[in-house]
Design brief:
The protein is built from eleven helices and five strands; from the N terminus they run E-H-E-H-E-H-E-H-E-H-H-H-H-H-H-H. By secondary structure, it is of the alpha/beta class. A five-stranded parallel β-sheet has the order 2-1-3-4-5, sandwiched between helices. Strand 4 (80-85), helix 4 and strand 5 (103-106) form a beta-alpha-beta unit. The longest helix is centred in the last third of the chain and has 15 residues, at 186-200. The chain starts with a strand and ends in a 20-residue tail after the last helix.
Length: 234
Amino acid sequence: MTTRVLLADDQALIRAGFKLIIDSEPGMDVVAEASDGRQAVDLARTALVDVILMDIRMPVMDGLEATRRICADDTLVGVRVLIVTTFEDDDNVVLALQAGASGFVGKNVAPTDLLHAIRIIAAGESLLSPSATRTLVTRFLDNLRPQTPQASAALKALTDREHEMLLLVAHGLSNDEIAARVFLSPLTVKTHINRAMAKLDVRDRAQLVVLAYQNGLVHPGDRLPPTTGPLLDR
């Protein structure tokens, strides 16, 4: 199947560069372009896209608000947002992740890394390296909204294994790394993570990371929790 991509950036030159890279890749097509956030929201609803490359700073409506609207729309549940940022000076990256974005890449991203990022996002995963996640969350922790009673209740509904998966995801571990650590198959790990996401009503792993920090389950500088070894899933 072809991955359909929407480019949302107010700089035509950047859109043209990304379009050239994406359209040259088999199985990927840029099907729409937006020069502001409002256009991005409208096109997300009409162009049947899979992945949106979303700039933060755009006129009319910024990428943060556009991401929030897209990710809150029940008719767009399969649409994934990949934030395109300069990292160092974009104070809204964590807020975008909290709004529902599945990850982020830099505007100077290498072509192969951009294509890899799109594949990861299209597959329903998140693009969050441990170091980048810790840096961003540490820097912008004060911007995260405090936990709600609903979130607290949902966290209590997690099984021991699901809670363990949440903590390991929040530390930036991949499914394979988690599997090796807790003596489970990657498929079983993915199943536990998906169940945790369903109970916590989050879209993907990126949201799990933000939720874990938001609710004080993980703090900047924390070390990985000790391995549990093989145990009965519960």
